[in-house]
Design brief:
This protein is α/β, with parallel strands linked by helices. About 45% of the residues lie in helices and about 20% in strands.
Length: about 110
């Protein structure tokens, strides 16, 4: 399933990186400690976090995550938005808490 398809189904708002919205999702990863995510998020995982800063974009690029979903209405700062647009990393926002958002995505991918 593509990120844009899942986003449409669950009503996620695209904040940045529209060029990356067609990437396929092969799993989900959740975490807010960037060094932890850097060592464990796998290629093409959809990453759920509340970290909306430029360092999160760097971690997504490093791990080749297919995109980021900011949960609990977390904000994306301007520098991060610009970098995500430049690198084609889709960043979405949801009002769901992290558990709910991840569970929905996991169930959809089963």
């Amino acid at each position: 399933m593509k990120i844009c398809e899942m986003a449409e189904k669950f009503g996620w708002k695209l904040l940045a990186g529209e060029d990356g919205a067609d990437r396929e999702i092969n799993g989900v990863y959740v975490g807010d400690l960037l060094s932890w995510v850097m060592g464990r998020c796998q290629e093409d995982n959809l990453w759920f976090t509340v970290m909306g800063n430029i360092n999160a974009i760097a971690v997504a690029a490093l791990t080749d995550a297919c995109g980021i979903v900011l949960t609990e209405f977390a904000a994306l700062d301007e520098d991060a938005k610009n970098r995500a647009d430049m690198q084609g990393i889709a960043v979405y926002q949801t009002t769901d808490n992290t558990y709910t958002a991840c569970t929905k995505a996991y169930e959809e991918l089963k």
